[in-house]
Amino acid sequence: MENIVSLKNVVKEYGIGEKTFRALDGVSLDISKGKFVCVLGPSGAGKSTLLNLIGGMDNPTSGSVVIGGSDITRYNEDQLSHFRAENIGFIFQFYNILPSLTVLENVELVRDIVKDPVDPVRALEAVGLAEHANKFPAQLSGGEQQRVSIARAIAKNPALLLCDEPTGALDSGTGVRILKLLKEQCAAEKGNTVIIVTHNSLIADIADVVIRLKNGRIAGVEENAHPMDIDQVAW
Amino acid sequence: MLRKKLFRELRQNAAQFVTIFLMVLISAFAFSGVHAYMDGMEDSADRYYRDYNLEDLWLVGENFTEDDLEAARAADNVQDAERVLAFQCNWARPEGNVTIETNFIETNRISRFYVFEGEDFDPDRDGLWLDYYLARNLGVKVGDEITLTNSGCSFACRVNGLIGTPDHVYAVKDSSVIFTDHHDFGFAYLSAKSFPEELAADMVIKSEEMQSLLGMTDMIGTGWALAKLTGMSAGDYLRSLEALQNAAESGEDAEEEMIDLDKIDLDAALDLAGPVKDGSADAEQKMAFLRALMPDLSRSDLIVFPQMIIDAEDTEALTETKKALETAVPSALAVTDRTVSPSWAAYQSEVEEGRTYSVIFSGMFLFIAILSVVTTMNRFVKKQRTVIGTLKALGFRQGKIICHYAGFGFITGLAGVVLGTVIGGFVLGGVFLDRQMQMFLVPEPRISFRPVVFAAGIAILAVITLVTYLSCRRILREPASQVLRAEQPRVKAPARAPGRLSARLPFSAKWNLRDIRRNKGRTLMAIAGIAGSCTLIVGALGMRDSLYNYLDWEFGGILHFAWQINLEEGYTEEEYAALTDACGDAASQTLAVEFEDGSGEKQTNIAVVNDAPGMLRLCRHDLSWFEPEDDGIYLTEKLAARSGVKPGDTVRWRVLGEDTWYESPVAGLNRDPQNQQLSMSRAYMESLGISWRPDTLYTDEDLSGVEALPGAGTIMSVQDLAGQMNSMLEIMNSLIGILIAVSAILGFVIIYNMGILSMSEKNYQFATLKVLGFTYGKLRSIFLQQNLWLTVISVILGLPLGYLMTDYIFKEAIGDNYDFFAMIEPRTYLIGVAGTVIIAVFSSLYLARKLKKIDMVSSLKANE
Questions:
Q1: Three-class SS of residue B436?
Q2: Quick one: residue B614, left, alpha or beta (phi over 0 = left, psi -120 to 50 = alpha)?
Q3: What digits encode the pLDDT tens for the residues A134-191?
Q4: What angle is formed at CA B288 by the lines to CA B285 and CA B294, rounded to 5 degrees?
């Protein structure tokens, strides 16, 4: 199957004060298109850093990050913006939706950056929030806000959906609903690839691929031949 | 969609953007207002000068004849010329005497009347055209009759019109007066054809020539000296007599000077010569005497024109025109241009002075306002950090994000600039222009909007936009992943371990010191802003102190007397003796002089001959007093500097209108705040052969209630003289009020903004301290401590800066005619300190309330 993500010897270092911290240390991995990928690891393992590099939100110190056949490490700022606009949908733990725009407007926002986005109303319907379209984020619950974030991400019709602890701030019931929504994006008719970074090892059971990170290195990559149905998992 | 976000967030953050809006509005208001009135003053006067043909040159002589007039008109680059006779008359009113500068003219083609009410000038019409402001203030209307008196001769005139003329934009009685309130002094114009006969006769009789003639009645008796009368003007006739006398004295042949004696009624002339000579002749007798000597005498023969005004074709070639006129009109004793016209120079000086204020104060406003806008915008952009990160993560291009955020500053700034410029121009500019026009008579004064005002508005917008751009760019430079997190304080390990002293400091001091070190930019901005406020307070009050100091220096220091009596021009010896018996003989004489400066150029000025020891004092550079010695002349320091003359030099000078040049050593320099002139002692003047005829007496006798004394023109107390400064003080007080209010607002906004910025940056630290158990009081004292330190530093900088600003305005910028300096009272410094500290403490306490509301959980969580 075609690889949508391909990392080779990726190193990422951060300067903290006068010291250097290596967040990723020679990471190489390939992710096939249409997979539901779970990245697991303890705090400080480099999970978010990996996600940021794949999403073009950060540049590696060395190594190459190839997304959809293009090495994005060679991109300048404008090219990276364009790349994110066209290819990546981000979903954050704390939603990061714009508080001054309504639910619908938050989704419509992508029209300013994507040529042919999904109809925002349809995107909201897909996440079950059509009736809240004219509310402001402050009027929604956490789970609803996260669904707005997902609607905004899927409205771009991105090849890659990158989720950083998408259920971290939610109760388990709401988290399950969100995971279902994300999983649906990988369905054959949509063909999107979803990468979820999480502490929650239970999510590994429903993933097609599980990548384990430890101290900035790949500790293991497991193909899950028979991922469980979300409802089967005891959350 | 971003546009929706923009307008919605403008509303949501209304407090911040209203602050920016107000700051920009205030600075644009001040800049535009001050410029509108200064530029308006200049443009209104320029229009007036151009449309009503202000003269370009002035000729001063004894009496310009028709031939002189034609010669002047024929000179190169001369468009037109007109003769003028001007002298002061008294208008006795029940409320008090009014001095009227009375002008007699022939055509009014130059310096034409601006007629507010009544008729245009008509040379064939009797009556006068009166100063509009004076008429308005005294309730005089067209058609009223007023009676003017000069040298005991009174003439009544109907008021034909109320006017202004471009050479009387500023008119004061004499050089001791700076400001006129248009109540006791004004000007009037009459046609030369309506020159009062009686006055003319009196003037001819008092002329030097006739006095000389009266001194040689023997010669009249012999008749030979009067032979050339027929067809001659009075002036020429008298001059010819003088020439004949000189010829007789020198033994030359006077045959050709013989004139026709048949036309002269010698008997009548000789009968009347006695009473005319001893002053007992009445007006009728005086005229009869003159007609006996000059049977063809007409009124126009009697009038003398000591001034001629010139309209040049090319105002760029005035130097050449001056030379051409000196050649064409040899009887011209001096040819001067607008720079020595008191009206033009005083107005111009006011404009220049205002320009200095406008540059300094509006510059300060702009600087402080920009500082507060910078801090507010910076704070706003920082608050939007994660939103910027989200937009970036979504794929918005940097340019688009920057444009979006620049839009916040731009739209707010644009509204402030447009409103501030318009309101400032029309309201502040209008009010200030009206105030100025109480002093200056310029018809149809209008405020002006020059390109510099619009340029300043664009510059303000550019700065705000640039600030927003830079704040945004700094955030956008970080990787998107980083921007999504709350900003981490940049912690740099100190180069060395904290010293023992630092270790001993209390926690709050250590914490604040390190915070200042880590946030140098923010700290410097806060210091600059608070110091700016302190500078404005000290500068504003310092200007007031300095002005009062000038008043004490001039009125009570230099003018060290209780009352001043301006003597009438034609006072008699008996009148003078009576006045000195009653009031003492401290007196001065004013000479209009021409002198050669260091480069040999001729300058006209005034020399005060001082015979009033202890009452009309000279002031040394160190402000101590001295009396003039009898060994030379004294120049004021500014005049000496301007003329390139120093003590020990020799200055060549003459009394205007006389041919004798004197060479006098410069005995010393003195200081005078408002008159840059020459001085000498009476004894020195007399040693040069110039006769003493004082024009002013000074006394400490109480003359309150005394309205008139024989021989005295006006009687004024030193308080009356100082009182003329009231309008200037009123303007100054309103300016000070505005400055202090603006300083307070700006100071508060800057401290508030800096505080908010610092508080949001340290939010999680305060939250941590709160978790650890720090009380609100403890946190507040930590927070206040830093602001107080910065305030103390700012005050230390602001006090001397306030002095320097005032000193610059008073010493350098007010103009060459004034010698002012800053003199700031200790009380003002104390007010500056107290005001700044109060603003700082008040705004800090206001801010500190936010410490109560810190939510420990969310503050700490947000920082994860």
A1: helix
A2: left
A3: 888 888 888 888 888 888 888 888 889 998 888 876 777 777 877 888 888 777 677 7
A4: 145
Distance CA(B169)–CA(B345), nearest Å, equals 10
Closest-approach residue (CA) in chain A for B6? A100
Under 8 Å CB-to-CB from B328, ≥6 apart: which residues? B71, B72, B74, B75
Q: Is the pLDDT of residue B70 over 70?
A: yes
Q: What is the pLDDT of residues A57-76, one digit of tens each?
A: 888 999 999 998 899 998 88
Contact at 8 Å (CB) between B536 and B743? yes
pLDDT number for residue B432: 84
How far apart (Å, rounded) are the C-alpha atoms in residues B564 and B713? 10
Phi/psi region, residue B118 (left: phi>0; alpha: psi -120 to 50; beta: rest), is: left
**Are residues B592 and B604 in contact, defined by beta-carbon separation less than 8 angstroms?**
yes
What is the band of B242 on the pLDDT scale with cuts at 50, 70, 90? low
Q: Which residues of A touch B395 (CB under 8 A)?
A: 81-86, 88, 113-114, 156
| Residue given tokens 């005060």 in the structure block | B608
Rounded Cα distance between A8 and A73, Å, is 11
Task: Compute φ and ψ for B821, nearest 5 degrees.
Answer: -155, 165
Q: How many CB atoms sit inside 10 A of residue B731's CB?
A: 16
Average confidence score pLDDT of chain B: 80
Among all chains, which residue has been given the structure tokens 């029309």? B426
**What is the distance of C-alpha B219 from the center of its chain?**
55
**Residue B686 is encoded by which pair of tokens?**
């007399």
The secondary structure of A75-103 as a DSSP string is --HHHHHHHHHHHEEEE-TT----TTS-H
Which residues of B are less than 8 Å from A120 in CB distance?
A: none
Contacts of B242 (CB under 8 A, 6+ apart): B209, B212, B213
Tokens at B671, concatenated: 């200081």
Q: Is the pLDDT of residue B22 over 50?
A: yes
Query: What ipTM goes with this model?
Result: 0.71
Q: Tokens at residue B78, please?
A: 């001369």
Pull the structure tokens for residue B95: 């409320």
Nearest by CB to residue A77, choosing from B1, B398, B482, is B398
The 10s digit of each residue's pLDDT in B800-838 is 999 998 888 777 666 667 788 888 999 999 998 998 888
Apex B841 CA angle, B839 and B847, nearest 5: 100
- Interface A–B counts its CB contacts (< 8 A) at 89
Give every CB contact of residue B315 below 8 A, 6+ residues apart in sequence. B56
What's the average model confidence in pLDDT over A90-117? 82
Say how far apart CA B830 and CA B373 lie, in whole Å.
29
Number of H helices, E strands in chain B: 31, 21
Q: Are strands A36-40 and A209-214 parallel, antiparallel or unpaired?
A: parallel
CA dihedral A206, A212, A216, A218 (to 10 degrees): -120
- C-alpha distance from residue B751 to each of B575, B739, B767 (Å): 70, 18, 22
Highest mean pLDDT among B63-77, B201-215, B803-817: B63-77
**Mean of the pLDDT values across residues B587-595?**
90
Nearest residue of A to residue B12 by CA position? A100
Whether the Cβ atoms of residue B183 and residue B134 lie closer than 8 Å to each other: yes
Bridge partners, B105 (sequence order): B84, B191
- What amino acid is encoded at B619 in this protein? C
- Tell me if chain B has a CB within 8 Å of the CB of A116: no
Which residue in B672, B625, B617, B646 sits closest to B821, CA to CA?
B672
- Interface contact flag, B4 A114, Cβ < 8 Å: no
Q: What residues have CB less than 8 Å from B616, skipping those under 6 apart?
A: B558, B559, B560, B561, B586, B588, B608, B610, B698
